[in-house]
Amino acid sequence: IKDHRYAEAMRVLQYELQRSPNSRAALSLLGYCYYNTQDFIMAAECYDKLTQLYPDHTDYKLHHAQSLYNAFMFPEAIAVMAQIDEPTMMPLVVKLDAAIKYREEDLNNARILVEQFESDDPDTEVNLACLDYKEGNYEKALQRFTNATNVHGYQSELAYALALCHYQMDEFQQALKYISEIIDRGVKDYPELGIGMVTEGMDVRSVGNTLLLHETALVEACNLKFAIEYRLKNVDAAAEALTDMPPRSEEELDPVTLHNQAMIHVDMNLADSFAKLQYLLSQNPFPPETFANLLLLYCKYEVSLRSLKLNIFLYMLPFYLKIDA
């Protein structure tokens, strides 16, 4: 685990659980490994069992709720949070509740919860910045993210947030500056992630979906670079942005990367691009651009819109009406 060799650790722990199904140590470590490999459903199962075996250990309930949140199982996460009554845990419960409200687009209540954070909590400014961004106030969000960077120092996730604000303000060069910094630091600090090796034609193995990969913001940065180059109609540069990211197998790809791959390969394999976009529509969540881009491609290639499912069609009805007009 210390060396981030989670797959090997999980094999050992799963064998241990076969011998001792209620082993607290094995369940706890296995839940930790699942969480760090972004397998939040399995992590939730481990922590759920731990809360049943050790109901007095409130930290297991919090880990259970956090796993459910990351698996986008918000009602289940809220139900688990309601069982936490330890006063020392309440600040973390409030933060998790605010994060759930944010993902559910309940921004007013999310802001109310964020304003309940401790006055000296360093997360407050970042959370308020995220709310400003979500509300379309990109300049204010940029200012808050800048303030947070001045307090915390360089963090790849904050650098990505700054790049995203500049992107939304159509300040592409400034956004690319932050993206380049994220990628350059990733190459230097994490050579094991294989950044750029696919672009160079090297045969590489998947690095998997780990918490480390998430914390580097490399995938997000490469996808944002793709978006910029794609909008600027620099198709080759956009394609290179996707191959520069750390290698993963197709089943490990996040929704945004899968969406971008579908868009860049549409001229080479139309059927595959359609299949990827339609698959994304069945996922929760899916990139908001997915349905709009699928409609545009249907129109471009004269595919019948009747093949779309009605509930998905109604979801994007206002956009469809614009196309129809």
Features:
mainly alpha; globular; Serine Threonine Protein Phosphatase 5, Tetratricopeptide repeat; 3 domains; 19 helices; TPR_rpt; 325 residues; single chain; 0% strand
User: What is the assigned CATH homologous superfamily of the largest domain?
Assistant: Tetratricopeptide repeat domain
Q: How many beta strands in the DSSP annotation?
A: 0
> What's the CATH class label of the largest domain?
Mainly Alpha
Helix proportion range: 55-70%
Q: Could you report the average pLDDT, rounded to the nearest whole number?
A: 91
Q: In angstroms, what separates the terminal alpha carbons? A: 57 Å
The CATH topology of the largest domain comes to Serine Threonine Protein Phosphatase 5, Tetratricopeptide repeat
How many domains would you count in the coordinates?
3
Task: Write down the overall geometry.
Answer: globular
C-alpha-based Rg, rounded: 21 Å
| Helix-strand topology string | HHHHHHHHHHHHHHHHHHH
**Would you identify the regions where 5 or more consecutive residues have pLDDT less than 50?**
none
CATH architecture of the largest domain: Alpha Horseshoe
GO biological process, one term: intraciliary transport
Main location: other
Subcellular location: Cell projection, Cilium
Keywords: Cell projection, Cilium, Cilium biogenesis/degradation, Repeat, TPR repeat
